[in-house]
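Journal club prep, shared notes

We agreed each person brings one worked example of a sequence with its structure written out as tokens. Mine is Cobyric acid synthase. I'm keeping it raw so we can talk through how to read the token line rather than staring at a rendered picture. Sequence first:
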Amino acid sequence: MAKAIMLQGTGSDVGKSVLCTAFCRYFFEEGYRVAPFKSQNMALNSAITADGGEIGRAQGVQAEAAGIEPTVHMNPILLKPKGDMVSEVIVHGRHYADMEADAYRGSVLEKALPAVRRSLSILSEAYEVLVIEGAGSPAEINLKDRDIANMRVAELADAPVILVGDIERGGVFASLVGTLELLDPDERARVKGFIINKFRGKRELLDPGIEWLERRTGIPVLGVVPYLETGIDPEDSLSLESLRLKMPASREFVDITVIGLPRISNFTDFLPLADAPDVRLRYVRSAKELGEPDAVILPGTKNTVEDLAWLRASGLAESIQLLRNQEVEIVGICGGYQMLGHSLHDPDGVESHPGIHPGLGMLDIRTHFISDKRTVRASGEILIEWAGGVSVSGYEIHMGRTERGTDASPVLQWSDGRMDGAVSADGSVWGTYLHGLFDNVPFTHAWINRLRRKKGLPPRSKEHLGRRADRDAMYARLSRWIREYVDMERVKQIIGL
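Then the structure, token by token:
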């Protein structure tokens, strides 16, 4: 049976996912068979396993850092919010149901806990070490009786807990002590150490607070981890705000705008663009923010129909149409691709109210929603002239099937011979179901050069690999990072290794 360690946080976005990734890489380098685990994840960024299962993207990244293929047992329950207190519930990688929050909470222990137990058992038999990630905070009193993501999982796995606090937000000592105070005595006994994360400044200035914390709680601070730009895909929607602040390093840049849909999903699609030194990537949520971009991207969404209605109500649909008339490039990914068509047919109310909903009419396509969700890794070859012949890979996650009309050409051909996507006759509007498209460096290089030519800028001299291109080096860097700033020998003692 595997030994386990669980990282829980004082709140969301404190850095649990990145630290778990670093732990996975560390134990992999130490020669252990290690796997990540997160019982229940609420995230709009997901990954696809080799057998077509859908899990939280963080667990996919952590598995990669551990040198293994991700499986659905690493994240048995995935919740993908669709808005209005409704989430898609995914169990062991497959669509289970769309459920309101009250209905899910009412059945969570009966329906979800057995799935968690099964996955935990399977992983415990197959691996030596499990790195378990909590969700939110273990001290949410109003949710505690139905919480299957924190202390109940620690008990199931008999895992000691390290509590992570984010000092960047301020009040880290209060949040650590306050979390402990709200735990039951048996839960508090599982907490064997603290990590203070995202620290900036001189460590010695923090020492008096650390000494007080250890005296007050009797629990050691295992590490003070400096703030680090990791290049790891963010999972939490809170991370979108930091992406809005990124500016290009080059003075000759193209301005690419991503529409910040209320139900945006898989926004990690655009991190390679945020990394590029000659791209200004902006997330906008109003027509007045739109400005004069060189390209507009409509991203994926958990509810195409409702986000399309929001797009119209906000005035963004009209503004995007004006930009299209000026031959500004308009791009759609997944749900954004569906929006660009003439119509969205939803007779069974899979997405929203049953009926036929008009699209933006920028591409000669029509989408039909069906309950059968397509989740698959995919690869193929680009057919558009400016990137023709470039090989790309990624994954599909969608419930719609889209048909092209005679005024649109396919964007790419899958390796099995099927065609995907659509591009307008003048080439200024195109879309695809392929998530992860911009992770393909040659394609992204070709597209940015196309935008540069249209803007009158000279072409790039070379492809920009970005921080995320050499992922193995990124994971090795994370391992060095925690070796330096976390007492990993003491962590191994806590685990019982």
